[in-house]
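Running low. Got one?
___
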Amino acid sequence: MKIYTKTGDSGTSGIIGGDRLSKDDAIFEAYGTLDEFNGHLGLVHSILVKESLNDLAKIILLVQSEVFSAGSLLATPPTKRSPDTEKAHQSIITVLEQEIDKMETELPELKNFILPGGSLDSGFVQVARAVARRAERNIIHLYLLKPDWKISNLAPFINRLSDFLFVLARYVNFKVGGAENIWTNQRQERV
């Protein structure tokens, strides 16, 4: 199979089932952002492997597969989806919640807003978290424009995933000895 087909050169792209839509359609914005997000998750996976956080690296691989599946579901018109689509993502939400709870048992209590960073590794995880939030916004926007395209557990999955990545960023910082930089309201302090 050739990697280039030239079918998208006119500014359209195909969805599952053969229909072609403009590349600026909200469907492509939603699952294109999921694709971008998955690229960031690949970087997060590499960070976890480098830091020998292998159990969490395995979770990220599981999450990457789920994000890829989510993009595929969004590329499928509602009339062509399996009835099982509505059950998609439920089990991974439970896994993410369990992993959040496990990491938080080791972390100091969060009493302030913190700034992304503290270590290079944690900063990359925070970037992935921010892209997850954008993916979530794009998915919600798609649902507002095309309510019949809604997948009931997709937005909760991405929301929980961004929570997981926030805690993971803190956890990575904790494991590598990075500092948590506390946010201070600079405007208020200058007054």
Summary: The chain has one domain: 22-190. The mean pLDDT is 89.
